[in-house]
Amino acid sequence: MIKFYKYILITLLIIQPITIAEKPPANRAAGLFFGIGVGPRIPVGDFTNTNSVGYGFNLELSYTDNEYLPVFIFLNAGFEQYSSSLSYLKETEFSNYSINSVPISIGARYYFPPLIESIFLLMPIVQASANYNYSHTLIEYDDGIRTPSRYIDENKFGFSAGAGVSAFMMELITSYNYLPQKQFISVDLKVRIPLYINF
To answer: In the list 33, 108, 120, 179, which could disulfide-bond 156, CB 3.0-4.6 Å?
Structure first.
């Protein structure tokens, strides 16, 4: 595990020069990282009855210190949007049924030993998180119906679990996200940059 963390941090040092104030113990690896992710959001279950494929992006802060934890702890916040399902609009009097949401999650990510390390670093990863989601639903009616637009605001709690591959500076993660009456698959391409490293 210690050797594995050294691979990650040495890769970061090659890509971006970093000043180290003091020499820490050789078996320690710690760092704070910033990431940006973007990708599609694919409804599953009952959620497919009302909404079609959406999109989302997120910002992430992650931290690790293998002296205390063998995982990366992360805090993630973002924005997601889902447009109306055409079949749902045909069955109702709505002209629009769209959802904007702000997800916030806190979780842990584990990096397995590299599958490839001679040419570049490629590692399998798994992650899990607890999620909070604020959503704002807009319902607009057909022109012939004299009903004003409606807005529904909801707060929901759930969880997500995912897996993917990582070159550490860039990774691809697919996750299953559960919220009451709203389950979806997210696919994120994430770019990460180090804010601080110590090893």
So the answer is: 179
pLDDT tens by residue, the chain, 199 residues: 545 445 555 454 444 443 333 343 445 678 899 999 999 999 999 999 999 999 999 999 999 988 877 899 999 999 999 999 888 888 888 888 999 999 999 999 999 988 877 777 889 999 999 999 999 999 988 876 777 888 999 999 999 999 999 997 899 999 999 999 899 999 999 999 999 888 7
User: Do the Cβ atoms of 192 and 169 come closer than 8 Å?
Assistant: yes
SS3 category, 25? coil
In this structure, which CATH number among 3.40.50.150, 2.40.160.20, 3.30.70.260, 1.10.10.10 belongs to the domain 2-198?
Answer: 2.40.160.20
